[in-house]
Amino acid sequence: MTSTAPALTTAPEDAVLPGHRGGTDASAAGRPTRRREWTRDVLACLAFLALAGWLTLGLWPDPDTRTLALNPPDQILYEWFLAHDTMLWSGDFSLVTDRLNAPYGVNLLANTTVILLGGLLAPVTAAYGAATTFALLVALNLAGTAIAWYLLLHRTLGASRTAAAVGAAFCGFAPGMVSQSNSHLHMTAQWLIPPMLWCVVELARAARSGTARPRRFIGCGVLFGVLVSLQVFIGEETLFLTALALAIVTATYVAIVRPPRAVLARFAAGLSIAVAVAVALLAYPLWVQFRGPQAVADGVFSPHYFSADLAGFTAFSPLTLAGDDTAAKLTTGPAEYNTFLGWPLVLLSLGLLVWLRRDALAAACGAGALAMSALALGPQVTLHHERTPLPGPYRLLMHLPVVDGALPMRFALAAIPLLAVLLVLALRQAARSDLRAVRVGVPALVAAALLPLFPTPLPTTDRAAVPTFFADGRWRDCATDGDVIVPVPLPTPEQPLPMRYATAALTAFALPEGFFIGPHGPHGEATMGIQKRTTSWVLSEVARTGVVPAINDDHRLDARKDLTKWNAACVVLTPGHARHAELQRTLEALLGPGTPSADVLYWPRTW
């Protein structure tokens, strides 16, 4: 069996930075050529940024009053996370926050927070608001992922600029990535994954050569461990999926190539350095996540529900040129079009896998893509909404620790870069072919398979502005920093709107209840949100039905108990709710007359 993989594990000439090629190659005559090469790379990166900006254009007229139409609740959640991350700069930050779900708090690492991103962009959030930071990250995650893959494919793996651009564009803007951009920042922030893979490639090259300088070998291992640690504070689910896919690809590649044991030993030594660094850096955060306050020991989502439909692989995402809304019924929601590759790309990928079967890297990537796609089918295979008798391979993993925290259908996202590498290898092989039909036909087939998947702008819509009482800091009329304010109605996972009020104040005050994952099941199981207390249940029913109950002394006693339990500084009724009049009558019956301030009514602590 022959393989082109050795060529891919030897750094190409232009993988070396200009001016560091050694000898007399860094001549004046060579500088214009290298300058043109970098110019082309910059243009490719700018093209990715432009595409990402165009896809998110609907958010930019006014991020505060615009929202992603397909998933507003999760946008509110991430905006709250980003606002809370500004506390990193003030030093008043904890992995278990007291600013939500008062008085119990929320374990941030048990939720899909993006702490590193929020911390880096905290100055933007403080100056322009969390909504602006959110819009930036939606675009930058797509473009940044594509740029990072472009540099890896071209500079490290030696692909031509055209092939690298094609592969990188698919990595950054595949249907699954664009779909996840509907408020799932932790899934689209994949720009650290290519640097991690660069470390793996460099460790493999060092292990294969056997003559690597120890300093460089150790440096790659340390960098790999640091990158893994950073990714934990961006998106653990992405890290887990990457690790699983990489393990499958590596095992397949090793089984095909059969490198000497000494090479495997050196490679394992490099990985052990990375593991040691990551364990040292993550020991405390992971303890907080799994054993600390408000930690959860299981997943909150059913793997049977969040599984991919087999028919979804050949469907076109509604967010692509060839898509329409009919395919949306094959998944759980518009943020989970993870498997929608379209039948042309599925057929082409299978054909390319057969054509490149003697290429070890292509075979390994193909095996990884097939394995991750199969795992996405969940514990039981579903076809067009009908459960078949066939068990899915995910059934073997579903009861393992950590695994149950990942949604099966998202395993298919890890197949995207593997398919991209397969496309790059095919374009590279075609360019080297002596047959004109191959040189022209393969790129044409790749273009025909990818063109229908070209993304369309993310749907957006208007949303109400935050009440002036919160936007202008008037909330300090009834509370101080760190106090608890009870908005009416209270925030829930289904209706998290009041969390925007705290977001506008950069989470300077706390809220009871809210949208989060916590251990609030009957026996400490993971739940979304927390069970309502009596008063919040009464207010939510008034908001839902418009029926004001006959308030008696028992209701008033419950209200005093609940407000004391929350340690509330004040209760605030905001404008704009369809049942505003009914809610006001209920609150007046419970607490007496309210105090007007700006555009709200509030009730200061008198209980």
UniProtKB/TrEMBL annotation:
Top-level taxon of the source organism: Bacteria
Keywords: Membrane, Transferase, Transmembrane, Transmembrane helix
GO MF, one annotated term: transferase activity
Transmembrane segments: 41-60, 80-96, 108-128, 134-152, 216-234, 240-257, 264-287, 340-356, 363-385, 405-425, 437-454
Residues covered by region (Disordered): 1-33
Protein name per its UniProtKB record: Glycosyl transferase
Organism: Catellatospora citrea
